[in-house]
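Input sequence (1052 aa), recorded before submission:
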Amino acid sequence: MNLNLNFISDDNNKMSLNNKNNNNNYESDNDEDEDEENLLFKDFQSIERRGNKKINNNNNNNNNNNYNNDIKEKNIKNNKITNKNNYNNKNFISKISIINNNNKFKKIKNIILQKKNLKNLIIIILSLFFILFLFYIIITYSINNKIYNYTNNKIINNNKNDIINQYCIKFLKNNNNNNNNNSSSSGNNNYNNKEGEYEEDEDEDEEKCSFDLNSPDYSCTPLSKNRVINFNYSSNYEERVNWNKPIVSVIVPFLNTEPQQFNECMESILIRQSFKLIEVILIDDGSTNDKSIKSYREWLKREPIRFRVIVNPFNLGLPHSRNIGVYNSRGDYIFFFDSDDILEPTALEKMVWKLNTSSHIQFTKGYLVGFGHTQYIWLKGFEQADKFLIENQVTISIMYKRSMFGNKLQINQSFQVDDYSIGGGSGADSDGEYFHYPKELLEFQYDSNIRDGMEDWDFHLKCASAGYWGETIPEILEWYRRKDKKTIEKNWKNTLTSKREKFLNDLKLKYSKLYNIGGGGGGGGGNDNQYKSFPNPIRNENEDSFKIKFVGSSFKEIKNPLIKKSSTPRILLILPWLNTGGADKFNLNLCKQLVEKGWEITIVTTIESDNKWLSRFQLYTPDIFLFNEKFLPYSSYPSFINYLIDSRNIDVLFISNSELGYYLLPFIKSNKHNNNNNNNLIIVDYNHMEEEYWRNGGHPRQSIGMSQFLDLHLVSSNHLKNWMLAKSNQMIDENKISVTYINVDMDEFKKSESSRHKIRKSYEIAEKEIVILYAARLTNQKKPLEACEIIKELKESLLNDFENNYQNQNQNQNQNQLFKVLFVGDGYLKSKVELYVKQNGLSDVIKLLGDVPTQDMRSIISACDIVFLPSQFEGVSMIFYESMSIGLVPVGSNVGGQSELVTPDCGFLVDITDDGGNDIDSLEFTNKFVQVLKQLIKNPKKITSMASKCKKRIKSKFQLHKMGGDIISNFCNTINKKNNQQQQKQQSLQLNDGGSYLFNQEFLIQTIEYLKLTNQFEKKKNDFNQLYSLQSELTNLKREIKKLELSKQSQK
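Predicted structure, C-alpha cell format:
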C-alpha cells in the first residue's frame, strides 16, 4: 500500500499544477448520486491499479489530470470548497475529507472506508499467518539442531539421538537389502550418509598414508593430501557469548614467513587441531614482504575470534616477541610455535591434559619429525636432563603453565604506535595492535638480548636453574621444518662453530650452579652426579591415589565440545594396545568397517606398549590416545574417559580385552555429568575366548561381572556365548549376548602366485614341496615349543618312512614327501624357540622369520599349503580365517569356537583333552598332530581339494563386510531397544544413590591401586625375563667356549 500512496501523492502534485493552468476547463455536472459514487469508485480503483502495476506516469498523466479536474469542478460548484493544499500527499481518502455537509459523499466515504478496512484486515490476517509460519520454522529448526548453552560453554542437543537414530534407520534398511540381494558380494564399498546407501570408494586408487616410525614417509605430513582425516574437529566457539578466556595461548613470532608454509602452520593449529579452546597470538616482528603480511591478514578475516596480531614498531628479535606474546596472552597454558612448523592433530589436547594432571612439572612437549631440507626422527626430550648442558635437546614447541612466567610487570613506558608504517612495511594497517614494549615485561621471561639464535637453549637452562622442569610425551606431536645449513647460519649466527663455543662459555658463567655441581666445567663425561644439578620431577604415586577426579571435586574440568557432522555417529574404542595379534587384527578390521560405513572413531589404549600397529590404526582415525605414564597416570584415566565421551559426544562405548575398561564402567555409569547428557550412550564389549588359566576365565568373566553396566555382549563364537551363560548361571539374558564372527577381508587375503614363487625361491623351497605355516605370538598359549617338538617328530617319522620305502620307490619321489615350516612370530619365548631349533638340528626344516609386517603376511601365506596352530585355547583363530581365504588347510586344536569355522571337509581339529576335560599327556598330544600332518603331506591332492573348500566356506559365510554389518546392526538394535525402554531415569537414580556412589568410588580407587601394582609387577617381570634370557645366552656361550677349548685340547 505504501507504493500506491506514494504514487497517488505524485499524481496529486501533478494534478494541482494542472488545475492552476486549466481553471477554465471546469464544467457543471448534473449527474445522479449513483453516477458520482461509481465515478469515485472508478477513480480510486484506477489510481490503486496504477500503483500496483507501477504504470509509467508519463503515459497516464493527461487522462488522470482531466479526470480529476472533472471531480474538482463538481466539488467547487456544489460545496464552494476552499482547498489551500489541494490534495494531501498521503492518500486518496484526504480528497474525500474535504467534502462538507453532503450526505451523498458521506455514503461514498463510508463505502470506501469499509472496503479499505476489509482489505487492511485481510492483509493483517495474512501477515499473522506469515509470522506464525516463520515462528514454526524457527521452532522446528531449533528442535532438530544443536542448541548451545552459553552459560557453561557446552553443546546441548535436545534431540541428542537424532544423528544415531536417523543413521540406524537408513543403515538397517540398507543392510537388510544387502543381506537379501548381495550376500556373496565382496562388500568393499562405503556408506553414503545422506542417502543411507553404499557407494564405491571414489578415492580407492589414491593410497592413504600414515607416519610409521619403522618405515617413515616424510612426505606424509599432517597436511599431506594423502593423510587420513576421518574425524571432524569442529566446535562452536564462534557462537559463544563469553568466549574471552581461551585455555591455550599459542605464541607465534612472524618475520616474512613464506605464505604457503605459514598457511600450513595455521591450518594445523586453527583448523586441524582437536582442541579448539585456543587463541593464536602472532607477533609481526617487522615484516616487509607484502605477500607474507597479506597471508596473516587473510587469517585475521578467517578467524576473527581466535587469531590476533601484534605488530612490533621495528624488529625486536625472537625472545622479545615471545615475551610480548605471553604478556598479551589470556590462556592458562602458553604454547610457543614457529610460524613454518606443523602440529599433529591431537598435540595441543594431549599437552593440555598432561599439564592439567601433573603438578610436579611446569612444561611438556612431544617427539618430533624433522622435514624439509633434512629429514629425521627425534626421540629425545626433557628426560635427557643434564645433556642440556652440552647441547639443546628440544625445539621451541613447548607448552608451559602460565603461572611459571609469574606476574605481568607494570609498564609505564608503553605507548601505542601511531605511525603504522614502522615495522609493518607497506602492508601494515589497522589489522594489528601496535605498541612499543619495554624489554622487561614478565617476572620470568626470555632474555631479550639474545637475538642471534639459541635463545631457547638459554631459556631451558634458566628454567632448570629456577627449579622448573618438564616431561616429554613419548609420541610424535610436531613436524619441525628444517632449512639448509647456509640459511641457518645466516639467520642464526650463534650456530656458527666459533660463535657457539662463545655462547656455551657464556651459559656456563650465567648458570654456574648447573655446570659446577656434578664435576663442573662442561657437564660432559657421563658423571652420574650431573643429574643432581637438574630438577628431577617425580610424580608422587601416593598423592595421585587421592586425586581421582570425582563429580564435585576441586579438579579443574576441561571442556572441549566437538560438533558432529550430520548422519555421522561416533564410537569410543577402549583397547589394551595396538600391537600384532589376532584380536588386534579384529580391532583393525572393525575400524575399517566402521569408517567405510560412516562412523568417526576415537581410540584409547590402557596398557603401556610399543604399539607397533599405531600407524595402521591411523589410516582410519587420527583421534588416538595411547596409555603411557609419561602422558597420564592411571588416576587421571577415569576423568579422561569421561572427558572424551562428553567432548566427542560419543554414541557407543566399545570395550575389547581391556581390564581397565571394565573397571571404569561403574564410574562412567554413575557419573552424574554423563547421566545427564549421555543417558542414551550404549556400552558394548567384545570377547574372543575364555581363559580358564587366567583369573578364572579372563575377560569374558569380567564381562559377566560387569553385565549390569553393559547394554550388549558381543562374542566371537557360539561356544563362548554358551560358556558365558553357564558361568553366569543363566542370569544373563540370552538375547543380550550376540555372536558376531571376526571374519576376513578376501580382497586383502587373496592368493598371489608371484609372491608364492618369490618367497619359496628366497628360502630355497622347491615348488612341489609342502610348506607348513606357524604364525602366532610366541607365548605359552600358542605352544611354540610344542609346535617345534611336533615338527621334529614329523621330520623323523617321514625320514623313517623314506628309508623303509627307499628300495621300492624312486628317491626323487620320496623327497617330495619332505616339508618346510615358515615360523612367524615374536614374544618372550623367542629365544627358547631359537635354541630348540638349533639344538635339535631343525634349521634345515624350520625357517624362523620373526615378526613379519602385516602387509607381508599375504605373501607368506601364499607360499604355504597348511596352516598349523596347536594352541592351548582359542576363540576362533584369525590366522585360520586369513589362511583359509587364500586356500590353506587348517590343522589346529579343537578348542573354543574353532569347529564353527573349521569343518571336517576343509580342515582338521585335534582333541587335546580327554573325556573328562583334562589335558592329554604331551606324548599323545604330539603324536595326534604328527599323524594328521603326515597324512596331508603324503597326499597333496587332498590338500588341493580341501583348499578349494576352505575358500568357498569363507566366501559364503565369513566375509569381512558381513562382520561390519552385523556389529553395526547390533549397535542399532540395542539403541532402538534402549530408546523404547522407560526405565532409564529409574536406573540412573539407582546408580546415583548415596550408597552405590560411595561404593563405586571406593571400587575405582582400589582398582587404580591394583593396576598400579600390576603395572609395576609386569615391568619387574619383563626385566626378569630379559635378565633370564641374557643369563641363558651367557650359559650357552660358556658351553660353546668350553667345547672349543676341549676341541683344541683334543687336537693337541
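Checked by second reader. Residues 253 and 283 are 5 Å apart (CA to CA).
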